[in-house]
Amino acid sequence: MKLYNLPHSPYAARVRIQIRLQNLPVEVAPPPVPLRTEAFMERFPLGKVPVLELDGGETIAESWAIMEYLAEVNAEGGSALLPGDALVRAQMRMLGRYADLHLAVNALFPLFRAAMGTAGDTAGIAQNLRAELAKGERLLASFGDAERPLHLGDIALAPTMLYLHELAPLVGIADPLAEFPRFAGWWKWVNSFAPVREVLEEVRVAYHAFIEGLAAKA
Ligand SMILES: N[C@@H](CCC(=O)N[C@@H](CS)C(=O)NCC(=O)O)C(=O)O
After folding, report:
1. Coil, strand or helix: which one is 66?
2. Residues 32, 49: contact at Cβ < 8 Å?
3. Which domain of life does the protein's organism represent (predicted)?
4. Which residue ranges make up each domain of the chain?
5. Half-sphere exposure of residue 8, counting CA atoms within 13 Å on the CB side?
6. Which residues line ligand 1 (CB under 6 A)?
7. Minimum mean pLDDT among 73-82, 122-131, 156-165, 174-183: which range?
8. Using one digit for the tens of pLDDT, what is the confidence trace for 26-59?
9. What is the CATH number of domain 2-80?
10. Could you tell me which CATH class the domain 84-217 is placed in?
């Protein structure tokens, strides 16, 4: 199997964390045809990275679909990231959807626009960021205090949180989790897993290279 990857992509990073955590037999490679071309769309209908290509040539897009697929087919290692308990599995999915439908849409994307210099209202962005993090703080509290193994929801959220740490200073927030102790505890916990920490560092370095590349072109 091959994972088509961009080094700075938070979505691809999720899958790379999973691959590394569980030593999955997946080769990580750049897209085989240029993004945003007819050829790419032809081969990968959703037009985005990451894409997992199976040995038979079938492709799976959308990071969450890829992660669930890998967890399901690698029953020995992968399934450890899919909780057996239905409630914990629902909580795992809530965390993933919180990352994509709340935190990314309402906080991260506006911060990206701020990084690109195309967002004006920094106070509004900071306010929305705090509101979205407060949601996460409450969501984590609703899961209770019992210790549990890492799952796909944590892996999905981690790269988003890395980006928030990188970008929040642009809107005057030095440490986005300073006001959210439960979230800060979760962040420390996910970073205690070496594959999570290492992939996040790779993303951080790749993001800065990407931004410097854009600045050099401008
Ligand atoms: N919902 C998708 C998002 C994927 C996505 O937005 N990928 C970006 C890279 S971070 C991409 O392919 N951008 C290229 C483009 O839009 O042309 C997922 O979870 O995989």
Report:
1. helix
2. no
3. Bacteria
4. 2-80, 84-217
5. 13
6. 6, 9, 11, 35-36, 48-50, 62-64
7. 73-82
8. 999 999 999 999 999 999 999 999 999 999 999 9
9. 3.40.30.10
10. mainly alpha
